[in-house]
From TrEMBL:
SUPFAM superfamilies recorded: L domain-like
InterPro entries registered for this protein in UniProt: Leu-rich_rpt (IPR001611), Leu-rich_rpt_4 (IPR025875), Leu-rich_rpt_typical-subtyp (IPR003591), LRR_dom_sf (IPR032675), LRR_TM_domain-containing (IPR050541)
One CC-aspect GO term: plasma membrane
Taxonomic lineage from the root: Eukaryota, Metazoa, Chordata, Craniata, Vertebrata
Protein name stated in the entry: LRC66 protein
Designated gene of the protein: Lrrc66
Keywords: Leucine-rich repeat, Repeat
PROSITE patterns noted in UniProt: LRR
Length: 222
């Protein structure tokens, strides 16, 4: 392909017209830019193939519609994941609850253990991706320009390291009063601009630390 590879750490396949992630990539690559192509699927390879040293993955502006990271055991140091500008309607980050009495391999809580920034703007999400709480060091989540309709009580549960939440330009009409209550490290912005909120949210806002937090609620229905 026309991908540009520096031989060790950086791969740039942006605007090369590829329809799939190139095979046989070196596991030493740290930054991979696969943006602006026609990629429809992204699948984590089996852990038996070895763990990648990938820290920054850009899959923005492709044709991905559904994505699951429930089998990702081979991206232990991935820090930033850019999925902007795809057609994603389902993004799964957790694993099915095991049947009663069955044993797990202990890996379910270690999916993408180093991920700090998740960006899924300009997609077709109707809900906050399930399993954000499993991303134990997640600090920033960008979910603007989707079709998210509500923020549930458990959507951000256990996201104890979360600092920035960007939800502008969705279709949010309802936010559960305690949805952000335990996010003690929120410090930059909860961005809810350009949604469909019709009533003030005193219970939600009272649970946030206004001394270090910026909240943007402009251009709603009230």
């Amino acid at each position: 392909s026309d991908c540009r590879w520096d031989g060790e750490l950086s791969l740039n396949c942006s605007f090369t017209g590829i329809s799939a992630v190139p095979e046989g990539l070196s596991q030493t690559v740290v930054t991979a830019d696969l943006s602006y192509n026609t990629i429809k699927t992204f699948t984590c390879t089996d852990e038996r193939d070895g763990q990648w040293m990938l820290k920054h993955l850009n899959l923005s502006n492709n044709m991905i519609s559904e994505l699951s990271f429930t089998t990702c055991r081979n991206l232990p140091v991935l820090e930033t994941l850019n999925l902007n500008g795809n057609a994603i309607h389902t993004l799964t980050l957790d694993v099915p609850v095991p049947a009663q009495g069955s044993k797990t391999d202990g890996q379910s809580c270690r999916l993408l253990p180093a991920l700090k920034v998740l960006s899924v703007e300009r997609n077709h999400l109707h809900a906050v991706p399930r399993g954000l709480g499993l991303l134990q060091v997640l600090q920033t989540v960008h979910l603007s320009s989707n079709s998210i309709q509500q923020i549930g009580l458990d959507d951000f549960r256990n996201c104890s390291q979360l600092k920035d939440v960007h939800l502008q330009d969705n279709k949010i009409t309802q936010i559960q009063p305690d949805a952000f209550r335990d996010l003690n490290k929120l410090q930059v912005v909860v961005d809810l601009r350009e949604n469909a909120l019709a009533t003030p949210l005193p219970q939600v806002l009272m649970g946030l630390n206004f001394f270090q937090l910026e909240v943007d609620l402009s251009n709603n229905a009230w």
